Amino acid sequence: MLIVENASGGYTGEEVVKDISFSVEKGEFFGILGPNGSGKTTLLKMISGLLNLDKGKIKIDGKSIGAYSKKELAKRIAVLPQLSPQVFPYTVKEMVSLGRYAHHSGLFQKWTKQDEEIVQKVMKQTNIQDFQNTSVMEHSGGEQQRIFLAQALVQNPQILLLDEPTNHLDLAYQKELLDLLRKSARNEGLTVIAILHDLNLASLYCDRLLLMEDGKARAIENPDEVLSEELIKHVYRTEVIKQPHSRVAKPQLHLMPGKRDEKLAKDIYINESQLSISREKIVLQAETPLKTVSSGVVGSGFGWYKNFVNRHVDETYYCVDHRKEMREYLSEKGFRPNQTVGMMTAVNLEDNSYGEYQGDGFSVMVVVTAGIGAAVDGTKSKPIVGPVNAGTINTWIFINGNLTEEAFIQSIITATEAKAQVLREMGIKDKKTNTVATGTPTDSILIAATQQGKKLDYAGTATELGAIIGKAVYEEMKQAILNYQKRKATAKSNGSIG
Amino acid sequence: MKSNAIKYILALTFLLFAALFAISIGSVYVPIMDIIKIVGREAFNLPIGSDVESMYVSIVYDIRLPRVILAGLVGASLAIAGAAFQGLLRNPLAEPYILGVSSGASVGAVSTLFFGISLPVIGIYTLPFLSILTALATILIVLYFARKIDRTMRVETIILTGIIFSSFLGAFISLIIALTGDELQQIIGWLLGSVSMRGWKYVGIILPFFILGSLLLLLNAKELNAMSLGEERAQHLGVDVEKRKLLILLAGSVLTGAAVAVSGTIGFVGLVIPHLTRKLWGPDHTHLLPLSMMIGAGFLILTDLLSRTIISPQVLPVGVITALVGAPVFAFILIRQRKES
């Protein structure tokens, strides 16, 4: 479709674009990225025929763009301009109709039925049909952008060029515009070439990206390759962190804000002094958010949380939407649900066990509440239908250290292995299968780290962190189960149920 | 379509009534029916009007009709040129007078008179020819300087450059006048703009340029629409910008130069009329250009009528009246535009 071969050029006496080659296929959404002054707009002007090339060639359908007449070129390439103030009060329809200029030959060619049809179709598509008889000047930036998009689309082009189309548009319009462009690319085979400022939008919408630096092509690849931390750091001279989008298989880049003032930055240290335990709930409140991975009722998955609540509920607790009920409970108790990890248990909270364990340059605090009335062998269990509300094992692990994501996951493995070992050693059995139990059906875990201090890359059992987590969970789990069993035994002998 | 027809009917009616009024009113009143008869007989050889007084025939046919037609042609030329300049420069304040094009044409005209230049072959067309040439040169120089000062060619820059050139050329004209000495009154009267005492000869001078210039512009109406969105945008829409721009500037200069050659500098018609027409009937140049011509012609015919009746028997230069009306309108548009941006 479009082939750029060793293109160089720019303004008189200054070569802005240097020896760029790439090709774009029909229906492709191709993004151009690069810092200010890297030659993106110049390259786009060369493709649209506004600027002549000093060297190289740009071809459409095998023919050099210079060989097309202005009108013939306009039938193949349309440009969505950046918004500029309007001088004359054309109506929306008049403005859109100007896009048909290239399709009119001769001096007196009349407006045809076909012209009218395509104009109406595109106005409908861009959602501007309803105000086609109003003046363009009356409309907001977002609407004007759609009007000019319609003007470009009625040119019936094969290629649409865009220079930062989302500039000055608010969030909803940005998405709407890019969705529309992608739809045109997929459904109608429109080739879209867009300069984009926002790397994350580029990642979400573009099939391939050209990353420019000082007029040269630094990379031409799919977003996953181009948006690498090293490349972006090198070209934009800015530290970014690459993460997968949580719903779409595309990368997203996160900026790191500059380091805060050292004096203002607080050191935090998690220990038992922040822990408060009552019959109703066990709470740990940190001064600043901790990076957390958990299976809590509220605040599950990865996130940053300040408050950690293990709430006692009655054994008969049942609620259709227990997440909502839990959020309401947290709000009622003065915890912001968005800053809180919340868990539930029917276990008597006084049976908890916790302890602090020192490592070299880091420390770990583990808090466990355990009920084993419903212990199961995880290798032989079957799905349970209906409410599950027996005692459960909730394990909290706080780490004063700076963990990688691997270390978080390894912490969970290590802790789970330690838990299984405790149950085995204590001979706790699955009543249905009469085999050694590995946990309860509703066990929950939480790993929270301050992300300050020592860098802890791994938490497997062969590492110091892993060893300490294993030991700490083992000790506290054992103590919590002992507490639980002791209470049960006392309750039985007293003939009451506690 | 229907609403477009109404626009043209209204504009034509205005023009026709303006012309009839202007021919009818003056030191001697000529009844409108007589005018129709005279024109019918003299111009179309119809067998009517043999009962009309011969003095009326002479007044209408030899004095007032050529004067009205000349005023109409000048008004139409200036209005369409103004509309085209405004569209091309994306600037509702652009106008031959403000851009210095009129002054440029005047320099050509005054020089021709002063040095008594008469080019071979073209003869009586020497004056309009040189006026057009200097008009075109002026607009090119003004635009070149404006671009030098400010690459984006903002409204203010172009106007300022135009004003600087107007002053400079004005001073040049004053110098020539000072050197002339005699016929001072006549040259100043001419400079202030007038269509009086010109006769059919002047109609003959302006007519070919008027047809050429306005035809060129009318054929570029669609391109003007595209270019009023900016040159880059026009090129993206498929307009051959360099070629069309030159054609439009050439046509605008031909019209202005010819108008100045026959009537001196008449300011603000090119500003006010397109602006008014656009307000009434929209900015689409395919209609704006012809409608501006009709309204401009009617307007200058009426202004000329005013100029010769207001302090009768004295005749006021018509340029004085257009400036008296036009300058405040210019100020008004400028203020409103500033507020909007």
UniProtKB/TrEMBL annotation, chain B:
Subcellular location: Cell membrane
InterPro entries the UniProt entry points to: ABC_BtuC-like, ABC_transptr_permease_BtuC
Keywords attached to this entry: Cell membrane, Membrane, Transmembrane, Transmembrane helix, Transport
Gene3D superfamilies: ABC transporter involved in vitamin B12 uptake, BtuC
Annotated membrane topology: Multi-pass membrane protein
Keyword Cell membrane (UniProt): yes
CDD domains: TM_ABC_iron-siderophores_like (cd06550)
Entry's family note: Belongs to the binding-protein-dependent transport system permease family. FecCD subfamily.
Protein name, per record: FecCD family ABC transporter permease
Organism: Oceanobacillus luteolus
Taxonomic placement: Bacteria, Bacillati, Bacillota, Bacilli, Bacillales
